[in-house]
């Protein structure tokens, strides 16, 4: 009886040791999948829910930025609008964007790329404010450069999003673009 019990104990010990040896390192994605979080679920959360939920703040800032070009507004009115409303809205947008938490490395990377584009847009608005305050065209040149860099970062984000979707069997319906409040409707 003791031999049978010893054999059973050894069998269980060997079974547990083989299980432990199976794969010693797991990636963040594997750990997330094991925890029940999938890349697909997080991509869907980020693109279809999280970004649209905060987009109205970014949209407001962009609208205020474009108002100068679309309406007859003097630079002092524009400065006041940018300082008091646009930057505040954009800062709130960035804080919320930074606050989203994801488990999978793929979606963390997408968030980082999108954040880079958004930060450059915010910095461009700040350059315009500084240009008006200091009557210095160099700030406007810097703002234009940051807008270009933002567009490049957004393009990289879109490319990464397509790649993540393709490698994870996620279907994309429609065009990949920036989430806006109208996208959520």
List its traits.
185 residues; mainly alpha; 6 helices; elongated; disordered C terminus
Question: Can you walk me through this structure?
Answer:
This protein is mainly α and 185 residues long. It has six helices and no strands. Helix 3 (39-70) runs antiparallel to helix 4 (75-99), helix 4 packs antiparallel against helix 5 and helix 5 runs antiparallel to helix 6 (137-167). The longest helix is centred in the first third of the chain and has 32 residues, at 39-70. The chain is elongated.
Ordered list of secondary-structure elements with their pairings:
Layout: H1 2-21, H2 28-34, H3 39-70, H4 75-99, H5 105-134, H6 137-167
Helix pairs in contact: 3-4, 3-5, 4-5, 5-6
- Total DSSP E strands: 0
User: Which spans of ≥5 residues are poorly predicted at pLDDT below 50?
Assistant: 1-26, 31-35, 180-185
Secondary-structure-based class equals mainly alpha
Helix amount: over 70%
Mean pLDDT, nearest integer?
79
Q: Count of helical segments?
A: 6
- Beta content comes to under 5%
What value does the Rg take, in angstroms?
Answer: 25 Å
Mind describing the biggest β-sheet?
none
The rounded distance between the terminal residues' Cα atoms is 71 Å
H-E order: HHHHHH
Spatial shape:
elongated
Summarize the structure.
By secondary structure, this protein is mostly helical.
């Amino acid at each position: 009886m003791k031999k049978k019990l010893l054999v059973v104990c050894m069998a269980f010990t060997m079974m547990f040791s083989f299980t432990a040896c199976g794969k010693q390192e797991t990636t963040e994605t594997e750990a997330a999948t094991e925890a029940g979080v999938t890349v697909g679920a997080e991509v869907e959360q980020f693109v279809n829910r999280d970004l649209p939920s905060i987009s109205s703040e970014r949209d407001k800032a962009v609208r205020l930025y474009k108002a100068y070009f679309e309406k007859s507004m003097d630079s002092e009115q524009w400065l006041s609008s940018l300082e008091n409303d646009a930057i505040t809205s954009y800062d709130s947008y960035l804080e919320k964007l930074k606050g989203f938490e994801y488990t999978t490395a793929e979606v963390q990377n997408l968030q980082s790329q999108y954040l880079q584009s958004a930060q450059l847009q915010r910095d461009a608005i700040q350059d315009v404010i500084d240009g008006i305050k200091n009557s210095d065209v160099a700030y406007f040149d810097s703002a234009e450069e940051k807008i270009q860099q933002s567009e490049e970062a957004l393009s990289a984000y879109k490319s990464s999003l397509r790649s993540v979707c393709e490698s994870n069997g996620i279907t994309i319906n429609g065009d990949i673009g920036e989430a806006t409040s109208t996208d959520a409707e």
